[in-house]
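Lab notebook, bench 4. Still working through the backlog of constructs that have no structural model yet. Next entry is a single chain of 530 residues. Request: give me the structure tokens for it.
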Amino acid sequence: MKNPEERLSAYIDALNEERDPEKHLGSPDNPGLEKLQSAARLIRSLKEPTLPGPGYPERLAKAVAGAIQKNDAAGAGRQAGPDREQGSRANKGAAGQSRRRWYLPSAAALAAGIILCAALAGWSVFFGRDVVYAMDKAVSKLSGYHGVLEVRARNAAGEEWMVRRVEIWNEGDKYATRQEDDTLTVNNGQQKWQVLTQNREVALLPPAPDPTRNNFDLRDEARLAKQYPHTAAGTEIIMGRQAEKLEISPPGGLPYYLWIDAETSLPVQLQTAMQNALQTTYTFISFEPNAEIDPAIFTYQAPEGYKVVEKDPAQLVVTVAEAAAISGLAPLLPREAPDRIFAGQGRIVLDYSDATVVETAVAGSFEPEPGAALGAAAGGPLEVWQERLRWRQDGLEILVEGARRAELAGQIAADLAIPDGSGGLAEKAQIKVPVDIEIARADQRQVDGGHGPWQLDPLQVSLTFVNLKVTPEGINGEPVLPMSSFRLAANNGVEAVVEVSSGPVKQVYLERLVRQDETGIWTVTGYDPR
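Model written out:
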């Protein structure tokens, strides 16, 4: 670096990255640059200042520019003034003055640039610890990692529970995950397989990425934090380590939080916004960046005595035309081109890295998961279940999973409507059913313990409620009104309406009162008599 501007810029970058500038860049080669670097280090250690008022940066720039111009004019005046000195003394003075005039305005311009840019962009961008900048640099140097990720959920009532805990090995595009039941999933870029310990099987899978792995991808989080508006939200201790908390506000979406380890500058915790009365927190309870990972973990080899099963065989193709020829399907494509395409008989997989679109031929009737929220897509029902969307369109059954599932699904089905849990369905009931919330909580605990799982299905709950209206003494044997008499008319994830084709009740209104997610039980809160 030959000029002072480049030297100073590199010096500030080193300070922001918390490296020793002198060690990496050497000592300054002139006293003026040394003073500027000392000033930069001093300001770097200060708290962010409060500007004197609106318009201060503009006034500051004008004042500094005026000072520089005045200094230049004074120097020019001295050169053009009376010739008071003769011979070599005059030449020596002019040369010295020329050197001073070259350096002083340059130093003043540098100082003005530092002050003005800092005032306009925020001092922390230049001299404070820019957390997102440091995270981006740290992630770019991350070759891989090994850690244990814990996933916890919390509902709108403040109740919290652990969803799962998974061990993760990552090395570039390769990854392996081990679930709590010892199921090991590995993707080495060319092959993907799953070792099912309980079944003593090895399932060979298409090498499309696992969408659940991308819920907390370090590289994606660093990229999004740079892309979206964000603000510092203090510091917290996460698993015994100090972390800096960021509030990130994606345009058109709800804010969410990201915690960055103060020592490594890597993300260690992510908390989603509260959506559909459910919030998810991903926390690395252990994390080792740039860990040495045994290459054997990414090498396919079936354990002795295990049966090898090929599930959903598919092959990587280059074009949509190839996929259509292999699958026999006429695929429906989002506007955005996928990263990779896989095709098998009657099946196409579009891989978007942070989401996956799976299209298959329609077979049988469309049956949503019991308790799944219902929206609308392509003029029909949309199943909203956990982290996936599923519907039927133009002879295809389409399933979209991953972080961008709503965005990609909307590019396929223009009328996509996802329920938001605020429809006020239960308020329409003609007759209200009183509820003892303590009994409901006790029922929820029973279901969590593996008892009475039928309470997770609004159809089953409605069947029991209506049949007890018909036979108040109890249900002995087959119910009077069979399940075929009940139809799920609406479900926004928190409230549901079930229509009954016969009997004393026309419609049943249900709510998830204790927990507003797929693990919450349904309780009847009202009905319409026939």
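Notes after review: Confidence is low (pLDDT under 50) at residues 47-51, 77-109, 116-128. Residues 87-121 form the longest helix (35 residues). Flag for follow-up if needed.
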